[in-house]
Design a protein that fits this description.
- The protein has helices spanning 10-20, 26-34, 38-43, 63-81, 85-108, 125-134, 142-158, 162-181, 186-209, 214-220, 229-233, 240-247, 253-261, 268-287, 294-319, 324-330, and strands spanning 2-3, 183-184.
- The chain is mainly alpha-helical and 336 residues long.
- The protein has one domain (2-330).
């Protein structure tokens, strides 16, 4: 078990506090929203030191490549200044799971690999292509290996490509939970539970909307977290308002319920935004007042991920001609 020495994050915290000033604050977000064209909104990113000096990323049509590059730079920075690579790698593995899902979908449908693989994870993209093609999983984590084998097994019997997402997403969050709990630090352990609970709430709401039966929901929901699984199971046939009312009596449900009650629209996207904002509020409460520690270190990563999600929402909305009000409704809470 990795034991975190808070003092060992002093250097990283000091550097990241300076970097936080470059994050997209409300003023910059508003300027992006008020831009008349997507190109104008895109230029605001140069103030946040996105890689606009790269000639190949000058056009707004290249924004996905720019965002991927920015996330890669963020992980490289954290690995450079942080005292524990293992902490950063826990989060990087999410990108490996994304790539494996893409590769398995291509493999099982006899399609070429689409050009959307990310190079932010631990595994080299080209090497992952070889691993999946040759079914040589030895260098992968055991949880991922088992999930890939299960995908092939279930797909061979059902022909249902949805199992790729279901099995690998569950494996990802299981590995995420186990590894966060394996770090001897109260904040990281609490974070593991919160992420599992928020993910389960999102999944449950989506599955209810699809009228999925109880047995299916039991298979999909993640282990761990603070919310008793019976709360979900007891609400499979109940109205969504009954489920939301029950959440109020969970460990951190009052904060979520208060936010939800302030909203008129109960659609899935709105509820997911509320849950994402709750996680960012937790990050802010835990990290903002600390001068050293792992909390500001991890909070910066989550802040950057939320920022990139907001940039994607704004630019996609601008390109597709959505109104500023509609775009704003979808934006996540910012850390700064």
């Amino acid at each position: 078990m990795l034991k975190v020495n808070q003092d060992s994050y002093a250097y990283a915290t000091g550097l990241l506090r300076a970097r936080e000033l470059k994050l997209l604050d409300k003023n910059r977000i508003d300027r992006m929203l008020e831009a008349t064209k997507a190109e104008e909104a895109y230029r605001v990113l140069s103030e946040a030191e996105y890689g606009m000096d790269n000639e190949s990323l000058k056009s707004v049509s290249d924004f996905e490549a720019l965002l991927a590059e920015e996330m890669k730079k963020t992980y490289a920075l954290l690995l450079e200044i942080g005292p524990h690579d293992e902490v950063v790698e826990v989060f990087q593995k999410r990108y490996d799971y994304f790539n494996v899902k893409v590769l398995l979908k291509a493999e099982l449908s006899n399609q070429d690999v689409p050009p959307i693989l990310l190079d932010t994870g631990l595994q080299d993209r080209d090497e992952l292509v070889r691993i999946i093609r040759e079914r040589d999983y030895e260098q992968l984590d055991q949880i991922m290996q088992s999930a890939i084998v299960e995908v092939y097994d279930v797909f061979s019997r059902t022909g249902d490509s949805q199992v790729i997402d279901l099995i690998l997403d569950k494996a990802l969050y299981h590995q995420f939970y186990v590894e966060l709990k394996g770090i001897k630090n109260k904040f990281m352990n609490e974070l593991a539970d919160i992420i599992v609970d928020i993910t389960n709430i999102k999944m449950f709401i989506r599955l209810k909307a699809l009228n999925k039966p109880l047995e299916f929901i039991k298979k999909v929901l993640l282990e761990g977290g603070l919310i008793d699984k019976e709360l979900y199971f007891n609400n499979v046939e109940a109205p969504i308002d009954s489920f939301l009312a029950d959440i109020e009596f969970t460990e951190y449900g009052k904060a979520i319920q208060k936010s939800i009650k302030s909203l008129d629209n109960r659609n899935i996207q709105t509820l997911e935004k509320v849950l994402d904002d709750h996680l960012m509020n937790y990050m802010t409460q835990q990290a903002k007042q600390l001068t050293i520690g792992i909390e500001p270190f991890i909070a910066f990563l989550f802040a950057k991920e939320a920022e990139i999600k907001n940039v994607r929402i704004i630019l996609t909305g601008k390109i597709n001609g959505l109104s500023n009000d509609l775009i704003r409704e979808r934006l996540r809470l910012v850390y700064v």
